[in-house]
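I had to read the description of the data format several times before I understood it. For illustration, here is how one protein appears when written out as sequence plus structure tokens:
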Amino acid sequence: MEIALYYAPYTCALAPYITLTEAGADFEVRPLNYFKRQNLSAEYLRINPKHKVPALEVDGRVLTENVAIHLWVHRTFPDARLFPADPWEELQAISLHAWFASGIHPYVSRINNPPKVCNAAGASDIVVKVATEALFECFRIADDKLARREYFFDHFTASDAHFFWCYRRSIQLGVELSGFPNVMGHFKRMQERPSVKKLLAYEKEVEQGFAGMA
């Protein structure tokens, strides 16, 4: 089986990098330089017309969106236990992934690029303020879910990898999340996982490579 992950630094494509690593999968990473707009190249648009990452190519077939990609990794590598075994808990994990993708990620994107949703003069500060308030609500919910537990379920799952990106990208964009101690604890635990350390080292390597091409 040939597996290739299309990835870009800082993006949510780090989540399937982590889960594929946790699963022990043999996969190739194909990094895209967003600053050079490689995601908008004709070559990549043939792979993913949505011009986003992650995209997972398996034996020539392409799968997009984190929810679907993580399910594929789980079903292909069941011994990694990337989703809970209990059917109801598995659905809860899918629900979390959908929430991360549609309930948290859009607000992070608004903070990252306010003019993309409103380019009116002086609107950026308002966009960031409203998006930040919405993120606080989301992280309060996540903080409650993580109370008195290390991960979202009774062991590490793909949900933890996806949420790791949500938190990390938020703080990279200057969102102050110190008021959510359970979320902060989860982030610190994630940073100690070998798969995450491998991801962070790879991200640094890709960034340095892109800088050398400038």
Notes: The helical segments are 14-22, 42-47, 66-76, 87-112, 124-145, 158-172, 181-191, 194-213. The longest strand covers residues 3-7. The mean pLDDT is 96.
